């Protein structure tokens, strides 16, 4: 991974930051209200609620003194009313324990009702200039892609890892970290969109993004809720010899028993390791090209796949070379390999491999 994401991201933010009403001041109260409203709602939808709220309750004192019914009325339409109740609870703590002064560090802020690590980081960095990250789902998605990290972002240890990485490589100048946090928010909302929608062409950190380079962005980040399902990383090879493609028969027992497959192995191999793998099989490997990542979900295991197309010379034990059309007609390839079959014009799956079992 690259430590070079902060500078281009900050430059981009400098020129392209979204104009949002809460960005017009560094008042911690305003940052706080906006961050809480933004937790479940898109920025554009939050604007009218935010403006109305600030007009009625312009500061912590007013919020702490606001009757509950009035507060709920102001929150009406935003949903998740516990957020509004926690706002008032926290306002009362600030009034009573901190004599009306907002705590200034993330460590203190996180002790207030309704303020988690993300919100504490956002307020401390934006309003008080503390060099702390604000890590939410957007940031985890972008970081997992920048580093091409296939680990599960729902694991606390993975979140901690990215938080530390940001701390280590983020800027040190006062308030620059706040800008970096907001740049991540904008990048995640506008460009590094979830699923297969990242807009890598216009991305300011494309040059340093490993997922963009390796074609893995659409399957990152990995989010696995604990279901007991196993995850397996695999590397799939399209070995080409002239017009022919390599396939081999799977074992007669276990997953996809007796079907054919493109040679593949456990783990996520780099380009160099992929060439070495081909050579260890007995091929002489020529040009190596990375293929897009793919995922296949079986009933009890998920394959997270990366792939390489490699021009080879020679033979390898158990490997059959055949033209795509012949493979389509003669060798049943399970749909788990559909993404890679498509890369060499072979149709698989639906209707072709009846009886396929995981
Ligand atoms: Fe996301 Fe693509 Fe930018 Fe990488 S290059 S951070 S995947 S939008």
Order of helices and strands: HHHHHHHHHHHHEEEEHEEEHH
Count of runs of 4 or more consecutive helical residues: 15
Tell me about the biggest sheet? 7 strands, mixed
Shape by Cα distribution: elongated
Estimated structural class: alpha+beta
What is the mean pLDDT? Answer: 90
Give the % helix.
Answer: 40-55%
Explain what the structure shows.
With about 350 residues, the chain is α+β, with helices and mostly antiparallel strands. The protein is about 40% helix and about 15% strand. The chain has 15 helices and seven strands. Strands 1, 2, 3, 4, 5, 6 and 7 form a seven-stranded mixed sheet that branches. The longest helix is centred in the N-terminal third of the chain and has 16 residues, at about 80-95. It is elongated, with a radius of gyration of 26 Å. The site of iron/sulfur cluster (SF4) has 15 residues, from helix 9 and helix 12.
List keywords for this structure.
42% helix; binds iron/sulfur cluster; elongated; alpha+beta; disordered C terminus; 358 residues; single chain; seven-stranded mixed β-sheet
